[in-house]
What does this fold into?
Amino acid sequence: MSTRPEDLPGGEPTMDPTSLYREDIYTDRKVGALRMLTPVTTDGSRDLARPILYVGEAQLLTTVGALPLSFEIEAKSLDEAVGKYAAAAKEAFERAVRELQEMRRQAASSIVIPDRGAGGFGPGGGFPPGAGGLPGGGGRIRLS
It folds into this structure.
């Protein structure tokens, strides 16, 4: 979990004592990992007022390397979470692929059109006077 200090209230990275969890990590050493987050009180005892959370972890291999995926699994037990891992991982993979495709689409469609005066070509964005173009641009091509 990463948080910038300037994004925190008061600018201090303080832990919330009412939101503590103990993490247990389970893996088959082939497909991925499953984190069981058990809510605890500040003395380390189980907080029965909050449910245990299950978070699956996997990697999506891309052309630029492995992209870590993390996804919640709705389950009441470790056994149920293990059983639901494949479906949750598949959904996370599909969501990540859709997001990557959308990012690619946005990057491909982001055409930058400079202002008329950009580029140091004088007022109006054309060639400077005497450089073979019309003074101040004019938007016409002129051959000499």
The first helix runs from residue 78 to 109. The two ends are 63 Å apart (CA to CA). The mean pLDDT is 82.
